[in-house]
Amino acid sequence: MAAVDYHSKDFDWADLREEIEKDPSFHYHLAPFDPSSSSSTSDSEAWRTFHRRHSTGRFFKERRYLLNEFPDLVDRAGRIGSTKVLEVGCGNGSTALPFLRAKEDIIVYACDCSMEALDMAKKMIDAADKPSIKNRFHTFLLDFSENEFPKWLFCHSCRSTQMPKQIYYSDVMKTELKLNSSSLSERTECCISGFDFVSMIFTLSAVSFQKMPFVIKECFSILKPGGLLLFRDYGLYDMSMLRFPSNQRTGFREYMRSDGTLSYFFSLDVTRDLFLNVGFLEMELEYCCIRSLNRNSRKNMRRVWIHGKFQKPI
Fold first, then answer.
1. 2-23+43-311 falls under which CATH superfamily?
2. What radius of gyration do the chain's Cα atoms show?
3. Segments of the chain with pLDDT less than 50
4. Closest Cα to residue 251, out of 218, 216, 211, 278?
5. What region, left, alpha or beta, does residue 123 occupy, with left being phi > 0 and alpha being psi -120 to 50 degrees?
6. What are the residue boundaries of the structural domains of the chain, listed by start?
7. Which of 40, 45, 155, 177 could serve as a FRET partner for 225 with CA atoms 20 to 30 Å apart?
8. DSSP label of 261
9. Could you tell me which of 15, 33, 106, 10 has the C-alpha nearest to residue 264?
10. Which residues pair with 85 in a beta bridge?
């Protein structure tokens, strides 16, 4: 029960909305936005610069709470062979590591637009206290906001069947999977048969709103039938949204930080439309309203996140 309370029950989102919408100082967040004033800065290039700047040390802590928020990952693991997870926008590996710790048969593939981020993720996984974790973590470089996922993840032939054939690799092939997609395609005519889970943890908000349908459609395409997409991101009226000044708006509910990275704040309706429009089924969708204390300023912070779980139809 403690995990559930932490998950979403610290305060009521409807009360927060009423308070914000009645406060004149926040009205610019609700105003229509003129697209002509939007910046053309590349989402991915800003994040590559961000990761180069933070290439030493851990900028994000390990997200151990995710196993409580998404118990399906542990519950399904081991039922039929290995469980394959794709972490989209892996950053420094803070999401992948708790997944890998959960069970020995969970294999995580992780992509990011930044090579610096992938290097940090590898270092974080290598430093884990379980030697077997390193062998179950595979990274590849991809600007997923602009490019399709490589065919070696889930080829068109396997996608067209309801029950994709399980491919068993030798030790040599398992080692080869650590390399990039071009080396894999030279050694096999098939693929790794898609994924049981795709995780997007504070990733989609970093992509411009216009590109989000493309990214979600790609995630849908590489999931196995019945597979789940695990989603967690910034929610509407989160504390960080209210801190943005009006001149940093780049769209409706979309903002640009001083370093050029984007941040979008999701409502339930927008999130539902984005995922259902590409074919997902809604399994869970709610606001997570979490109150925390800033230890330096002693101020209470009201954080709002979106929690979602979506399934590819069988």
1. Vaccinia Virus protein VP39 (3.40.50.150)
2. 20
3. 1-7, 40, 162-188
4. 211
5. alpha
6. 2-23+43-311
7. 177
8. -
9. 33
10. 108, 197
